[in-house]
Amino acid sequence: MANDDKKPDTESSSASESDGRATQVAVGGASSGTVGESPSPTSIPAGLPFERDIQEMERKLADLEYQAGDDLDITAEVDALRKKLRKRLADTYEGLSAWDQVTVARHPDRPVTGDYIREALDDFVELHGDKAYGDDPAIVTGLGRIGKRRFMLVGHRKGRTTKERLKCNFGCAHPEGYRKALRKMQLAERMGLPIVTMINTPGAYPGIGAEERGQAAAIAENILRMFEFKVPIVAYVIGEGGSGGALGIGIADRVLMLQYSYYSVISPEGCAAILWKDGSRSPEAAEALGLTAGILSKIGLIDGVVEEPLGGAHRDRPRMIQAMRSSIVEQLTALESVPRGELVAGRRQKFRYLGAIEGRFPVVV
């Protein structure tokens, strides 16, 4: 749980050496070398419940590769096992249930916002503070660049290690986090920069301190203002997309999901607890919620799906990073020629018509 005590909001700046692709600079007094999240591990990823046989095959493959040497030619065995592993991965991930996809979205080794900042961006200058209460580590904001394209990046920060996750409140942002996000998006509009958001939260923090400081009002204000911005906005659900905590930075001209992420009005556990008073029915709730990228794309609630590497983003981080880098450039390129007035009108119409029933007039507010 994050500390609700007030923290000073500074305007000092400090720079650190880049860790990975991006040259990162922190503005606001915090070191930015890892952007608050340690890099994803590169060893065999932690196994999920439905991956036990896959994990065993990966261990065997690692053992064979370790044993291979000048005096022992086992190339044929290694190639055969790799081929078998790829087929098992393809078969397994093709038949994932909604609950299985939720577990993939929550995988501890899955790339997080910090990974994309470090490895997909060429430069990043982190901006801190909401100028009212403090700097919430659960939201990261800053000026990013890919090639010649500059933009404001706003994203949830979960952390990687236990210490980081506690500091970042497991990605559950406080009101000062959403107010920080709004200030930086307003800055982007003044500078004429597009906005890219990365959503990865089980939901906004519901603690007493957060409620006292206006959690609901902060999220509502963000939703309202994001409909008014005259610069392009692209939102990505990179892991968990939970409830109002996701919508607080999720109003965009283009909303895309990574293939095995989820986007829902409530977590499956919360849904099961409310409807059936039984947390063990979370898998059933996940199916009923229709929270997967495939379903949401099919019914038109999102604009696209970013394909993940075979076996999920946690199995091939470099490929996932490159896919995100390419997607960001592609989406910003597509939106840059749209007149600003059309952007605002299109964004409003897009969200007003969500859930419209075919053959009937939707409710217009």
From TrEMBL:
Q: What class of enzyme is it?
A: transferase
Basic and acidic residues bias locations: 1-10
Chief location bin: cytoplasm
Locations of Low complexity compositional bias?
25-36
Question: Pathway it acts in?
Answer: Lipid metabolism; malonyl-CoA biosynthesis; malonyl-CoA from acetyl-CoA: step 1/1
Q: Does the keyword rRNA processing apply?
A: no
Q: What cellular component GO annotations does this protein have?
A: acetyl-CoA carboxylase complex
> What does it catalyze?
N(6)-carboxybiotinyl-L-lysyl-[protein] + acetyl-CoA = N(6)-biotinyl-L-lysyl-[protein] + malonyl-CoA
The organism sits in which domain of life? Bacteria
* Keywords for this protein: ATP-binding, Cytoplasm, Fatty acid biosynthesis, Fatty acid metabolism, Ligase, Lipid biosynthesis, Lipid metabolism, Nucleotide-binding, Transferase
GO BP annotations, alphabetical order: fatty acid biosynthetic process; malonyl-CoA biosynthetic process
Q: What is its EC number?
A: 2.1.3.15
Q: Which Pfam families match?
A: ACCA
Q: What does this protein do?
A: Component of the acetyl coenzyme A carboxylase (ACC) complex. First, biotin carboxylase catalyzes the carboxylation of biotin on its carrier protein (BCCP) and then the CO(2) group is transferred by the carboxyltransferase to acetyl-CoA to form malonyl-CoA.
HAMAP family documented for this protein: AcetylCoA_CT_alpha
Q: Which family does it belong to?
A: Belongs to the AccA family.
Q: Quaternary structure?
A: Acetyl-CoA carboxylase is a heterohexamer composed of biotin carboxyl carrier protein (AccB), biotin carboxylase (AccC) and two subunits each of ACCase subunit alpha (AccA) and ACCase subunit beta (AccD).
Protein name, per record: Acetyl-coenzyme A carboxylase carboxyl transferase subunit alpha
Q: Which organism is it from?
A: Saltatorellus ferox
